[in-house]
Amino acid sequence: MSDSPISHHSGGTEPQQPVEGEDASTEQKAQMEQAYAQMRRKMRMSQLDKEIKHKIMVLSGKGGVGKSTVSVGLALSLARQGKKVGLMDIDITGPNVPKMLGVENADLHVEDGQIFPVIGPHGVKVISMAFLIEDPDKPVIWRGPIKLGAIQQFIGDVAWGELDALIIDFPPGTSDEPLTVSQSLPGIDGVVIVTTPQEVALLDSRKSINFAKTISLPCLGVVENMSGYTIRGTAEPNTTVSIIGPKGTPIESQTDENGDWMVTLDVFKSGGGASAATELEVPFLGALPFDPGIVRGGDDGVHRIIAEPDGATAEAFDIVVRNVLAELENSSSPSVKIS
Ligand SMILES: Nc1ncnc2c1ncn2[C@@H]1O[C@H](COP(=O)(O)OP(=O)(O)OP(=O)(O)O)[C@@H](O)[C@H]1O
Ligand SMILES: [Mg+2]
User: Fold this and answer.
1) Which atom of ligand 1 is closest in space to residue 288's alpha carbon?
2) For residue 238, what are the domain limits?
């Protein structure tokens, strides 16, 4: 396809071009090649619908709320339960999924017109625009049609194989990318919306839910990220410990018989995601704690689920996954049918 930044050989399976004699112009040949490439892609798209059981888009109304962290976490949590999982990073300007999974230096393998995903931890198959960018310090400036062409090519040309779930991470907002994906990829199950706990979350989530409605996709639910931050300590057993909370007010905790205590601070307020879900009448999928280990993991390429598989964050992801799976099971339930 001529407007695509991804170039590779198209493989040897296409039919002979019905070109008259030797005189067909180069332009005609190019047009026909493009038409065949499009036909092949369409056929693969319908194949994808059969090969990939569930396709889930991860969206948020605004940036930096943890879409990529949640996408990677959902993928890893599903994969460690033995599911076959793919993760597609559609963020062209800031693709950071490969870094979060420690596979940012991997190269995509292209053969016979197909792009083979990079294999990450727990066998998660990863495709990201980051794999195409030679210099990560240079901004990627692709004009609309080129960007959308690349996305379509990513969807149509990737050899995912059989998958239980494909998680798709997007740039913030309700831009062209989710629209293109929803129009190109058949059989998307729905949208998971990521939000933070502030009250403005309601506003942002409403936008994302309305967007899902516009593109006729069910909203599987809302995940509240960066929820409470838990601090722990030890003191005299069976006594009361008092610490100063974020608002300057004391917060008390009881130590147990070993002297251990624990307090969860609502760094950004609490419950924005749950109340947004209630008010907008969509399922609440769970809350993920504010965890400095997530930031470290993003930098080191070792996700929290890998670094601490039995930790509170990994457990919270498992709960979200359980709820997402339940929603997928009930996807005929009227509560998730937005359109
Ligand atoms: N639960 C969490 N606890 C602590 N830090 C977090 C948590 N979730 C995400 N972060 C941190 O917040 C930052 C933004 O996260 P992330 O990149 O996942 O957001 P995003 O919504 O994908 O951003 P963008 O809109 O730019 O794509 C990262 O530094 C990440 O490590
Ligand atoms: Mg992101």
Assistant:
1) 1
2) 229-265
pTM of the complete model: 0.84
Among candidate residues 57, 63, 338, 55, the one with its CA nearest the CA of residue 214: 338
Enter the DSSP assignment of 158.
B
Q: Which ligand is nearest to the CA of 225?
A: 1
Contact 192, 54 (CB under 8 A): no
Tokens of 60: 């948020």
295 lines ligand 1 (CB under 6 A): yes
Ligand 1 proximity of 68 Cβ (cutoff 6 Å): yes
Same domain, 113 and 246: no
Closest ligand 1 atom to the C-alpha of 171?
27
| 155 inside domain | yes
* CB distance 122 to ligand 1 below 6 Å: no
Crossing angle, helix 26-51 and helix 144-157, to 10 degrees? Answer: 50
Whether residue 80 sits in one domain with residue 206: yes
Same domain, 236 and 287: no
Beta strands in the chain (DSSP E): 52-59, 85-89, 109-111, 114-116, 118-119, 125-128, 163-169, 190-195, 219-227, 229-234, 240-244, 250-254, 260-265, 284-289
92 shares its domain with 138: yes
Does residue 303 belong to any structural domain of this protein? yes
Q: Which ligand is nearest to the CA of 267?
A: 1
- Coil vs helix vs strand at 183: helix
Per-residue pLDDT tens digits of the chain, which is 339 residues long: 344 444 444 444 444 454 455 556 888 888 888 888 778 777 877 888 889 999 999 999 888 899 999 999 999 999 999 999 999 999 877 788 999 999 988 888 888 888 899 999 999 999 998 887 777 666 666 667 777 887 887 788 899 999 999 999 998 876 788 988 998 888 999 999 999 887 676 778 888 888 888 888 999 999 999 988 888 899 999 999 988 877 788 888 899 999 999 888 777 666 777 888 888 889 999 999 999 999 998 888 899 999 999 999 999 999 999 999 999 988 754 444 333
